[in-house]
Design brief:
- With about 300 residues, the protein is mainly α.
- It contains 12 helices and no strands.
- The longest helix is centred in the middle third of the chain and has 35 residues.
- The relative contact order is 0.09.
Length: about 300
């Protein structure tokens, strides 16, 4: 025992001091059996070097994961645009006369609840002017159309926000990608508020007009336009992460093709937005002043339509 103590002290004095260990800790290490000493070395290395505990994920893996997520999100936005168009064609957009983020997720179930919902709808201009002879069965159809559109919108919001928070916490996003993802999540929230702001314009009582109640065509165009921007931004960012960047020579033909592509995309966007300005029903054969009136059937000022002043 005495010999072991002398040998341990000599080894302690002669051994080089390791970084991260105090003299007392290093002395106690020589009193441990070899197996315990090996375990202590492994634990100590991880403790003093936390980065060794969880190896960093390669950028290629994280980029593929985030890119696929953004492609899925762009698909959900495209589905929302299609479902919104169906809702508009079936004239179902004004069937739900209030907006609650969580409470309206539960649809009416009993006959009494449906009667209550139908009575609320009967107090607004669309029923009084257009659907005054509507039955409860017909109301259920348009109500479920609008309900499905709103629930899909909430699904889109969850598809953006929850994975974004997870990837942010796990360190999958670099600085530039964080700003993009934050902008996309903010645009999703803006979409939900703008959707209700649009519907609200069609529920307002206009005593000096007996036209068919419609939502503001300017708010409708803004709602669709922001959805298209969200879709294109998500798709572009996702493909940029998934597809390798090609180094192409900046030739005259390439620059011309690029300008043509941007111009075509702008025309498609303008066509989609201008279609929403035709916010009334007119005869199928239009010409001259009648065509202009059909396109701009709401003669009010766009600033007034948005309620800015």
């Amino acid at each position: 025992m005495l010999l072991r103590t002398l040998l341990g002290g000599a080894r302690f004095l002669l051994a080089p001091r390791r970084r991260g260990f105090s003299p007392t800790q290093q002395c106690l290490r020589w009193w441990q059996p070899p197996q315990a000493r090996i375990r202590h070395n492994a634990v100590s290395e991880v403790a003093f070097h936390p980065k060794l505990a969880v190896p960093p994920i390669p950028n290629a893996v994280t980029d593929r994961t985030v890119g696929r997520w953004l492609l899925i999100c762009s698909g959900t936005v495209a589905g929302a645009v299609v479902l919104g168009g169906i809702t508009r064609l079936t004239e179902s957009g004004l069937s739900m006369v209030d907006w609650h983020l969580v409470r309206e997720m539960k649809p009416p179930r009993t006959q009494e609840e449906w009667e209550t919902e139908f009575q609320k709808y009967q107090q607004f201009p669309e029923f009084k002017i257009l659907n005054h002879d509507m039955t409860l069965r017909e109301f259920k159809f348009i109500w479920y159309m609008e309900y499905s559109h709103r629930m899909w919108g909430r699904l889109v919001g969850l598809a953006y926000i929850i994975p974004a928070a997870y990837f942010w916490r796990k360190g999958y996003l670099n600085r530039s990608l964080k700003s993009r993802v934050l902008a996309l999540c903010g645009l999703v929230c803006f979409q939900g508020l703008l959707g209700w702001y649009m519907v609200k314009s069609g529920l307002e009582e206009k005593t000096d007009s007996h036209d068919i109640p419609r939502v503001s065509q300017y708010r409708l165009a803004a709602h669709l336009g922001s959805a298209l921007v969200l879709y294109c931004s998500s798709l572009w960012t996702g493909l940029s992460l998934l597809l390798p960047q090609q180094k192409l020579l900046e030739t005259h033909q390439l620059l011309r093709l690029r300008r043509l592509t941007y111009g075509t995309a702008g025309l498609v966007f303008l066509t989609a937005i201008s279609g929403n300005l035709h916010n009334c029903y007119t005869d199928p054969i239009l010409s001259g002043d009648r065509m202009w009136h059909a396109l701009w059937c709401h003669t009010s000022d766009p600033v007034e339509e948005f309620g800015l002043f």
